[in-house]
Amino acid sequence: MSTTTVVHLLRHGEVHNPAGILYGRLPDFHLSERGRQMAEITAKWLAGRDVVALYSSPLERAQETAEPVAETFSLPIWTDDRLIEAGNSFQGRSFKSRSMADPRTWRRLYNPFQPSWGEPYTTIVARMVDVIKAARRQAWGRQAVCVSHQLPIWMARRAAEGQRLWHRPDRRQCDLASVTSLTFEDYRLLSVSYAEPAAELYTSGRGVPGA
């Protein structure tokens, strides 16, 4: 008989970021109050599923999103660097700042297919595939949750669905506290599904994209 295992990729909730900084991998960016509510709602949405393993990016916003899931299932949070946000040379800047209009900044955008301004898409996919396999192995026959960030999750999904990796960032289907679920039959990917448990808390302005 075949074995069915599900790995849920959970994006973190809304971050307190009034300055509109592209925070990337910077420390000390925490969930906003609404972001914590998003995390709680998504943990409740996951309740009742057979989750036996919980992994998280080391960044604070991901750890804080993982906490309600840990409490719901009485699980430890396994911190895994492979789930971290994508590297980005614009980290720490505001898209509203004058520095973003500097030609020296935009020279980094010469290759959108790699991309030239940050961690290569192929590198992101490789590390995400590794951690998904680790989570699947630990949760074999049951379910796992991996808390990560928009671009790594979107790259993992595009790779799983056999799509090209370069894309328009404004067309990513990976909103705040959303869940992208990969269902495996033994080692074969059966399906990819997507849900937005906290959509009721979304606002028209959802902060810095891709974080």
From TrEMBL:
The lineage of its organism: Bacteria, Bacillati, Actinomycetota, Actinomycetes, Streptosporangiales. It comes from Salinactinospora qingdaonensis. InterPro entries: His_Pase_superF_clade-1, His_PPase_superfam, PGM_Phosphatase. It comes from the Bacteria. This is Histidine phosphatase family protein. PANTHER family: BROAD-SPECIFICITY PHOSPHATASE YOR283W-RELATED, PHOSPHOGLYCERATE MUTASE.
